[in-house]
Amino acid sequence: MTKFDEATQAIRVDETTYDVCLDPGYSIGGPLNGGYLMAAILRAVVDASPHEHPVTTSAQFLRAPQPGPARVRLEQIKTGRTATMTRATLVQGDKSFIETLVTTATLADVTPEWTDRPSAAMPPVGECVKLPDPKPESNMTFNAQIDMAFDPPTIGWLTGNPTGRPESRAYFRMAEPQDPDPYVLALAVDALPPVVFSAGARGWAPTVDLTWHLRALPAPGWLTLLGSGRMISDGWFDEEVEVWDSAGRLVAQSRQLARVGRG
């Protein structure tokens, strides 16, 4: 079991309840990363499902949970031979923090009948760059859990040279050696810096809604994350992420709506 597997472990209490312990190592300046939280919820959902893979997840982030004990409460809405739909709620104390609707199915490892190409080209990994290590007082512990190499123009905001477009692109893998799986993909779709940084915004940009789809089981190796946005307006922005595996297959897609960073 890797550190990530342990940090997202869900322990069955009964057929509708699972205990989780939210790890402070996935903090982004205080709040826990949304992809990490989804991965913990999905562990419970898949364990309770007759199907192996979370093919679509829609999460509403009601408030930011604290590191420590929490529970995932499940309500199975419909189950069939090919798919099961489950409502899953992350709870701390008497409050709900994340509401999700998850469809599980069992994917085969097959060659796509048709697939589009990546929306943007990436330079080789050796020509990409890493973000500087955050200062300890920043409480950005999430960075230590992952290994990312960025397409240089998309982190120009670090030096005051944003591209002016909402975009972010990087290669991604776990810091501890681990082949990607659906739970790693849940983390990956929310791992990029907010795309509005490249448009000139800064600060924590809280996600309100995030929906992602598992399209294929990923091959070992680096994942490629391609993030973009379509509109920034009235304090809101959207972010779409494509995840491609080392075999050149589209393995995950996501779209989220978030608030423009404050402070």
From TrEMBL:
Domain Acyl-CoA thioesterase-like N-terminal HotDog: 25-106
Matching InterPro entries: ACOT8-like_C (IPR049450), Acyl-CoA_hotdog (IPR042171), HotDog_dom_sf (IPR029069), Sec_Metab_Biosynth-Assoc (IPR052389), TesB_ACOT8-like_N (IPR049449)
Pfam families named among the record's database cross-references: 4HBT_3, 4HBT_3C
Acyl-CoA thioesterase-like C-terminal domain segment(s): 127-260
PANTHER family: CHROMOSOME 23, WHOLE GENOME SHOTGUN SEQUENCE, THIOESTERASE DOMAIN-CONTAINING PROTEIN
The name this protein goes by in its record: TesB-like acyl-CoA thioesterase 3
Native species: Planobispora rosea
